[in-house]
What we know:
With about 450 residues, this protein is an all-alpha fold. It is about 75% helix and about 0% strand. The chain has 17 helices and no strands.
Amino acid sequence: xxxxxxxxxxxxxxxxxxxQFLATLMLMIFIPYIIMxxxxxxxxxxxKYFGKRSETIFFETISKDIIPVVTVNKSTALIxxxxxxxxxxxxxxxxxxxxxxxxxxxxxxxxxxxxxxIVLVFTYRYSGLVSDILADKKSDDNSEASVFQxxxxxxxNSTGLWSILFLVVGLYMFTAGxxxxxxxxxxxxxxxxxxxxxxxxxxxxxxxxxxxxxxxSSSIILFRFFHxxxxxxLEDDYAAEIKQFFSRILFISSIVLPVFITLNTIxxxxxxxxxxxxxxxxxxxxxxxISLLLQYKMLSSKKFSNFPAIFVLVLFTAFLTVFAEQEAxxxxxxxxxxxxxxxxxxxxxxLEKTVxxxxxMSGADIFKNxxxxxxxxxxxxxxxxxxxxLPKYNGDIDKLAEFIKNPVKxxxxxxxxxxxxxxxxxxRAIARYILQxxxxxx
Length: 442
């Protein structure tokens, strides 16, 4: 993956911590939105299927009503869906570029699949609206309007199924990327692409995200219909059926959720666990249990006044799960972070030598630029020849260096030697040089 080696830059340990923090923020944005979009769309298709099969008006109506809720708009899909996934891909490319690029490959594949899926979801949404408008228009079976109406209907039927296929597979590839990032260099990733895709770790993590998707999408649908800005004006019977249907989905998925939180924790590598990880998971479990108690009370009394509290608990459960995943990933890749920090230090040292070359001169350069104006090794010039003055130092470089650093007049036959303003390292360099060179003249 030389492409990524050229794309990314070495990072210090502080910068790596910042990248991991940004990755956590992106996961907090991306995961709640994408699971809401996927499983909200899936619920719409399921309701559509039951509506056609049983000819029940409720299922046909709710199938079309929940799609605008979970898709919101195209800008939201770009800002909360695709942009965070792109940032995550670049972040993990930065963290794994010299180690393993398998997580990045999964994220790139997930991005392509999810992009196609999102386009198909909005096609499904708007073709459904057009189909409803055309259904109110009467036209001959062989007219152009009738042909167009059938084409729109076929588009509405086909894009829904294809969108959920691309979205679910894209989410699975994203889950595989998370698992690969959590197990770098382990047996899980050493087997390559397919060993990761069909691993138990990916399967349990995918089911966990799916259950979170059902709880988040169901709670958002109920909150949007009955509590957001006073709720939507609905007929009493229709409103009661919506409450009953989605509250049951929320309750059942919330019951199963702790099981897969536990299984997902078991599949984490030992080096990924920490007290902070268990704290996040414990808090998530507590929130799920509190949410279940409130849901049970709500279903028993059929009073939805406390649902906003359930909605908040569900969202915070999702956020804590994301925190736990990122904490495990940071722990599992701590050694890789140290390697990247070492690469940064080496890169920094090389860069400093290249951009800011050292102005410290060697012993030979100092002799040529400063000493040779007054001294020779074997003949008298302004100062005495080195072969006469250096023997008294007996090869003691420290003693000679001290004289060069702070020269004093010793021989009245010669002028005092001026201080040359050399750095300590340069003083020792010239002392070593002349002690070595004078041997050639003795």
